[in-house]
Amino acid sequence: MTTTTPTARHAAPPATNAPVRGRRSPLASVALHVTLIVASVVAVFPVLWVLLTSLKPAKYATTTDFFKETTFENYTNLLRDTPFLTWFGNSLLVAGLTTLVGVFISATTGYAVSRFRFPGKRGLMWTLLITQMFPVAVLIVPIYNIMASLGLLNQSAGLVITYLTIAVPFCAWMMKGFFDGIPREIDESGYVDGLTPFGTFWRLILPLAKPGIAVTAFYSFITAWGEVAYASAFMVGDENLTLAGGLQKFVNQYGAQWGPMTAASVLIAIPAALVFLFAQRHLVTGMSAGAVKG
Amino acid sequence: MAVDTPSQSVAKAAGEHVARGRSRGTGTPRRAAKRSLATHWYAWAMIAPVVIVIGVIIGYPLVRGIYLSFTDANERNVARSIGVNEIPATYEFVGLENYTDALTGSQFLGTLGWTVVWTVSCVALTFVLGLALANILNRKIAGRSVYRMMLILPWAVPGFVSVFAWRFLYDERRGLLNQILSGVGLDAVPWLNDPLMAKFAVIAVNVWLGIPFMMVALLGGLQSIPGELYEAAEMDGANAWQRFRNITMPGLRSVSTTVLLLSTIWTFNMFPVIFLLTRGGPGEATQILVTQAYKFSFEISPRDFAQSSTWGVLILVLLMIFAAIYQRVLRKQGEVW
């Protein structure tokens, strides 16, 4: 797996906790491995079980065998008989647009908050922080009514706008953390060379902040991809559902259809996991930058 | 960018007079004022998009939501259009009635009690387990990156998918967990159908979901602690527990205060786990404030928008009070936040 690089890089000097004198006793090593194995099994098993179930014929979905007459019939049925692809497209559109617009709007704000002192900065920071505490419940009713009056209920555009209420403050806050990690000397060298703050941001800082932007984009994508409350409330009718709403159809309306359900789960998890793998190279760096200096 | 050209000259002019740009305050006061105005102008232009977006799509709905909580709005009396007919809103201002109802009735306080239990147990378990795993992963150990990948997996899979996976495992009649139990001769456990078991079940799922974030964040914190500290401590004869207590814990302080605050807020508002796993049931046993507020406005008939908004505002107020107290405590302990 390609992900060995980041850990290796971080741990390049002797791993921080490793005893310097003397080695760990074999018993301790075994205990550590056992702990990790148990934890890994618990972490992986539910997901693995869904994958295995999706490969069994639907009538055997609830058997305990790991493999039974391995087949792709759940997948072919899912793609043929259900609006899964439509839901998938809806989700992709909504999550993609949210990410794009969210990151685009909030990048300059993250930079401004990170570098400048200006009247209103404190207020803005508090606003960004507090909006992240907003429970769904406080905005969902007014937004629902507003969308209804604008005719945007059941529309992807309406959902994107709604998701921006989550994505924008979050992206701005997170990017501030990343910009904080870029030395100010770089900005100063830009000013000395006659760049404006915008020029400095655009030509010097933004290229350096690419990992941070990737991680931020990844978070907003995942958040929008997995959002449940707004999607369930705003979107109705098979045509307009996103995946979060669509999956509920399999377990509620027609009883529990575990066959298509598990196949759909696998297909949904794959793009998210791919994006995740792409971003996770920067994950530790990003989290600590965001968390320590946030 | 369009704004580049005119502003460049300003910056250049400033740069010619003062070698180090914004940082030094030489020159006449008037020029300094001008320069600071220019700086603020940049900053304000940069934050403008976010300020506008927040104002329009968060500020306005928030004000409306707060207003709704002072009315008796429900599905039947809000403005709506049926076909071509526009029906105007007929709901009325009722003052603090919704709030007194919520705060004196048993439903809000009961739900709040369970929400607090839910939040505290989820955050505490997630933190302790995440810290333990981060500590193990921070050692030299064979296959570390493979373990790390597997342990992060619950985070990589979208939450609603995992919740359905758990629901599949928890299924009372044919779920894997009960089949295993019956395989070893035990009675089936009504994981999601018994009020108490359901509470344990939802907490377990949320902890499972939350550990990877906690672990990765704390691992980042651990890796920023210089190894020399441990070496020095070991020279002085500190044992493993003393090193953990006196080096690791203080070193993790700033990361852990942030992730604890974040994860408390997230868990308090954790909608999908409860909604998709139990819908707040059996009865209202696992209903937290957020899911109950959602139920008021979208699952009961007639939809009670006013009560839902009231609960939403109360949740927000509670969280803000919590964050303020948290920050004050940190500040008292000398933490800059």
Automatic annotation (TrEMBL), chain A:
InterPro entries reported in the protein's UniProt record: BP-dep_ABC_trans_perm, MetI-like, MetI-like_sf
Ranges where the record places region Disordered: 1-22
Occurrences of domain ABC transmembrane type-1 (ranges): 88-279
Family per similarity comment: Belongs to the binding-protein-dependent transport system permease family. MalFG subfamily.
Name by which UniProt lists this protein: Sugar ABC transporter permease
Membrane topology: Multi-pass membrane protein
Transmembrane domains' residue ranges: 30-52, 87-112, 124-144, 156-175, 213-236, 256-279
Keyword set, alphabetical order: Cell membrane, Membrane, Sugar transport, Transmembrane, Transmembrane helix, Transport
Subcellular location: Cell membrane
Highest rank taxon of the organism: Bacteria
UniProt biased composition (Low complexity): 1-19
Primary location class: membrane
Pfam families referenced in this protein's UniProt entry, alphabetically: BPD_transp_1
From TrEMBL, chain B:
Protein name: Carbohydrate ABC transporter permease
Superkingdom, taxonomy of origin: Bacteria
Domain named ABC transmembrane type-1: residues: 112-326
Pfam families for this protein: BPD_transp_1
Membrane-crossing segments per the record: 41-63, 116-137, 149-169, 200-222, 255-277, 305-326
Membrane topology: Multi-pass membrane protein
Compartment annotation: Cell membrane
Keyword terms: Cell membrane, Membrane, Transmembrane, Transmembrane helix, Transport
Positions of region (Disordered): 1-31
